[in-house]
Recover the amino acids of this structure.
């Protein structure tokens, strides 16, 4: 996933993908965000509207005819596929991840021993409420696993779902490092719809994340 996040390109004219405008004149880091495509780095580079400028040693991208990019769950699935999984990337959403932790499907299954007899991940996380660090929920995570949430947000009156790829686990500090494809909002701030960092087990719990893994790598 790092290669998708750190790939740099320059807009050749103003580009709009999934409602986000990528303005000419600045470098963009990372494959664009969209829920309408499952673009790998190789696909992005070979796009008909992508051109490598040899004299300047950079990639120039002009407005494509259709959306190009990926979202949080397809970015995770693409990374698993790149690692050798036979996962069907096109069907991976948090809805399918939620189903997979309850009963293995599409090369995905839960990581750990938490109970999945709940409608959403909120209930799965609540069973660890007595453990402020939620150690038992996340202690079996390994790099290249993922964490996701899927639940109904009553305050906003809609479903919420998101997934992150785990890149490291520190049991001593009860924390993980991660990479995620977020959405177009960050483009305005720092020319990227991607981010990475560290989350404590407690922060994962507060956001209702549960662990999931690929079954064939």
């Amino acid at each position: 996933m790092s290669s998708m996040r750190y790939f740099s390109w320059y807009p050749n004219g103003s580009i709009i993908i999934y409602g986000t405008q990528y303005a000419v004149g600045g470098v963009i880091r990372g494959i664009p965000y969209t829920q309408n495509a499952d673009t790998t780095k190789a696909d992005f580079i070979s796009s008909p509207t992508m051109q490598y400028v040899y004299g300047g040693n950079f990639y120039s991208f002009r407005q494509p005819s259709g959306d190009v990019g990926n979202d949080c769950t397809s970015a995770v699935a693409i990374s698993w596929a790149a690692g050798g999984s036979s996962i069907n990337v096109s069907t991976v959403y948090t809805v399918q991840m939620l189903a997979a932790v309850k009963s293995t499907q599409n090369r995905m299954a839960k990581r750990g021993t938490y109970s999945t007899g709940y409608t959403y991940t909120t209930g799965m996380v609540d069973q660890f409420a007595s453990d402020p660090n939620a150690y038992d929920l996340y202690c079996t995570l390994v790099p290249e696993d993922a964490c996701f949430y899927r639940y109904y947000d009553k305050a906003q009156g809609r479903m919420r779902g998101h997934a992150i790829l785990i890149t490291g686990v520190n049991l001593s500090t009860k924390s993980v490092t991660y990479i995620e494809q977020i959405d177009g909002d960050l483009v305005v701030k720092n020319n990227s719809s991607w981010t990475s960092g560290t989350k404590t087990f407690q922060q994962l719990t507060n956001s209702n994340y549960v662990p999931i893994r690929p079954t064939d790598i």
Notes: The chain has a mean pLDDT of 93.
